[in-house]
Amino acid sequence: MGPVGEAFHSDRKSYFRNRIRALIGLAAVAMLLLFLSGCAVSQESDKAIPEASNGVIDLTGWSWEKDGIVPLDGVWRFQWTPGRSGSSGTGVKNAMVETTIRVPGTWGTSETGNGVRIEDQGYGIYQLTIKHAPHIGLLALRVPNVSTAYELRVDGKVVATRGVTGMSAADSVPYQQPAIVFFDGDDDTTELTLSVANYDHRRGGIRTAIVVGDYAHIEKQRTMQAAQELIVLGCLLMIGFYHFGLFVMRRKEKANLMFALLCLFVSLRMGVIGEGYLVQWIDPLDWAGAIRVEYVAFVMAGWSGFGFFRTVYPYEIKRYGHTLSTGIATVLIAVLFVVKPLTFTSWILVYQLYILFFSSIVLVALVFSARKCREGAWLSLVGVAGLVLTIVNDMLFYSGWWRSVDLLPFGLLFLIILNSFIMSKRSSSTFEEAERMSRQLKEWNNSLEEKIEGRTAELQRSYATLEEAKRELERVEQSRTQLVSNISHDLRTPITLLRGYLEALKDNVISDPVKRDHTIRSMLAKVEGLNALIQDLFDLSVLEARKVELTLEYIPLSEWMQRLTEQYSLEMQEKGIGFASVIDVQGCPGAKVLVDIRRMDRVFANIVYNAIRHTPQGGLIRVAMQTFADRSEMEVSVSDSGGGIDPDDLPFIFDRFYKKDKSRHSSSGGSGLGLSIAKEIVELHGGSISACNLPGGGSEFRIVMPLSA
Question: Which residues cross the membrane (predicted)?
């Protein structure tokens, strides 16, 4: 295999290896989604989940121990007080409207029972009656983040509050954090009253489901969710600090810095959403500060992620793209500290489009990189594609158009893990390359003298090769000179005779009609000889250039032998020469060859007529065909009982214009091209031809050709 073939083979191996890695990445995405869906399981049985209707949900047939937890989804009773006048349709500010509403759902995207759409800012009271079988022990409610303050009562008793709820913005204090409350299930009904106030966020209401179950199941769900967030948070922090350490050790690797920032900003965002661990750990961090941290981390994660891919793929992502990303990120972050949370949260689409736009640029760049088989491009492409899907999911989820969970942290984590693997692989490859080069340098130092001797020997062999090439060029030049001389001689002799005949006819030197006819016939014979010579030269040049189109057909060996026998046996009998044909097909009774039979007839005509010319009367010409049990090829030989070939001439008999008669007199017969043409035709069929002298006298020509499958 040549260098081009090796490169092509290597590219194909790299291409399929990248595809396999991409498939592994897709499998990892599927496993991640299964993991997330597993963490969000709301029940453990196949029983249909009841839904609330008109503020009542019937769970009397629900077993807390066997069926697990159940979401309190459905239509709740609802009392609404708008944050601005006119929102209720009554035209009276702070007028209480009693209706129903579907839970979960944000206020601005939900339609109440009376058909009026409400605003996201205001005050609302949710009420639900839960009918259930009496339960010995504690039941529990898992309340998610509610925008942006709430007070929960169970059977009229306050059991949980987040922030301060009020009928106006001045009376409310926003705060978001999930909660678990416990209550006795001794009675067969439980009344829930959830007061919610929102004057500070673009979306108010209950975004995700409130679930109820016994203590064990609710505690298990909270533990799973907390473990899930802590595992992701811990992974992000470890990966981030690790790559930051790599950057500190080697400042030239800007990709490590951008990657570390990406991990740390994503972990910072996770710390203030969900369970809100960062808010719990830092007491002075209020809701307004936490949501600003969330948005800053969101923007900076997109900026650092784009900067990372810009550093890794500088040819696909231009410098001005990173400059544009930096400018937009600066403006978006500045807005966060100038306007109120209600304003910038209402512009969430701008922040999401910022992330989506630059993620799309990276996605397109990675597609081009993957097509160029750049290292790690396929894995990065899978990671960015997964990230874009989670961004779209969260855009729909936070806009209230999609029932889901916040998947962006997990999409970022998946992307970070894949790129961390790529960077680790690159670092490992760098170290391996350094170690390999160190070993090679050590070996070269230890074997320098041996290498010098080897190079000297190679130079001597190269010199010998050059000498041989020089001699070959001299031989070719001599052959070319001889070829020109032979062609000019073979053309000049008949042309000179033709000129003499024509002058004799012109001067009436030949006046006798019989002699005149004889002369004309001689001239025609010379012209035909010239035509034959020119045709042979043309055929040989075409064959040597491999510009011949063969008309191939499958010929059984027995049929081929019969064809040769019919062509030459009768003529040999007339010349008093014996003819024998032998065929031996060992284990291949139906053996065939794929040949252009017309051109192969020309090969055998040259060989057989040479044999006839050198075989005396009473001699024997033998044609034999043979197959071999261990080889997929056949051999055909033509032998004669003549005087043989001079050993000095054997190496040259297949050269063009070669004749034993060095005087090259044309009367000796033949152009000297027949065996050259025969050799080219045989080799064009994928075979070989050779000649030798027989021990008992005479010569033999052997043709070896492949058998057809």
Answer: 230-248, 255-273, 293-313, 320-339, 351-370, 377-401, 407-424
**Rounded distance between C-alpha atoms, residue 641 and residue 612, angstroms:** 10
Report yes or no: 275 and 228 within 8 Å, Cβ to Cβ.
Answer: no
Whether residues 492 and 640 fall in one domain: no
Which bin fits 264, alpha (ψ -120 to 50), beta or left (φ > 0)? alpha
Residue 47 lies in a domain: no
Residue that is written with structure tokens 């491009």 in the block: 377
Residue 438 forms part of a structural domain: no
Q: Supply angle C-alpha 51, 54, 57, rounded to 5.
A: 35
261 within 8 A of 329, measured Cβ to Cβ: no
Structure tokens at 27: 């499998």
Buried residues in 574-592 as b, exposed as e (16+ CB within 10 A): eeebebeeebebeeeeebb
On whether both 324 and 260 belong to a single domain, the answer is: yes
572 Cβ contact partners less than 8 Å away, ≥ 6 residues apart: 578, 579, 612, 621
Place of tokens 């006298």: 697
Does residue 486 register a pLDDT over 80? no
Residue 604 domain boundaries: 553-706
Taking each helix axis from N to C terminus, what angle separates 448-506 and 513-544, rounded to the nearest 10 degrees?
A: 160
The pLDDT assigned to 229 comes to 84
Separation of CA 671 from chain center: 59
The answer to whether residues 497 and 522 belong to one domain is yes
pLDDT 10s digits, 356-368: 888 888 888 888 8
Q: What is the pLDDT of residue 46?
A: 67
257 with 387, same domain: the answer is yes
Q: Does any domain span residue 333?
A: yes
CA 653 to chain centre: 55
Assess if residue 312 is contained within a domain: yes
Question: How open is the CA angle 240-242-245, to the nearest 5 degrees?
Answer: 110
Least confident of 46-55, 201-210, 369-378, 484-493: 484-493
CATH label of the domain that carries residue 211: 2.60.120.260
CATH code at 697?
Answer: 3.30.565.10
**Nearest-angstrom CA–CA distance, 104 and 401:** 12
Q: How far apart are CA 404 and CA 668, in angstroms?
A: 99
Q: Are residues 567 and 539 in the same domain?
A: no
CA distance 566 to 579: 11
Do both 100 and 121 map to the same domain? yes
The DSSP code for 164 is B
The one-letter code for the residue type at 601 is D
Residues 295 and 360 in one domain: yes
Same domain flag for 425 and 501:
no
Task: Give the pLDDT of residue 325.
Answer: 94
Locate tokens 């966060």: which residue?
A: 336
Q: Among 432, 461, 490, which residue terminates a domain? A: 432
User: Does the predicted TM-score (pTM) go above 0.85?
Assistant: no
Taking Cα atoms as reference points, which of 194, 255, 562, 217 lies closest to residue 380? Answer: 255
CA 209 to chain centre: 42
Over 230-258, what HEC string results? HHHHHHHHHHHHHHHHHHHHCCCCHHHHH
Task: Report the domain count for the chain.
Answer: 4
What is the average pLDDT value for the chain, to the nearest integer?
A: 80
Q: Which amino acid is at 34?
A: L
Instruction: Give the separation between CA 336 and CA 327, rounded to whole angstroms.
Output: 15
Q: Tell me the per-residue pLDDT of 15-64, one tens digit each, with 9 for 90 and over.
A: 445 445 544 544 554 455 444 444 444 445 567 889 999 999 999 989 88
> In CATH, what number is assigned to the domain containing residue 506?
1.10.287.130
Residue 657 in tokens: 């214009």
Picking from 545, 579, 610, the residue at the C-terminal end of a domain is 545
Residue 543 near residue 684 (C-beta atoms within 8 A)? yes
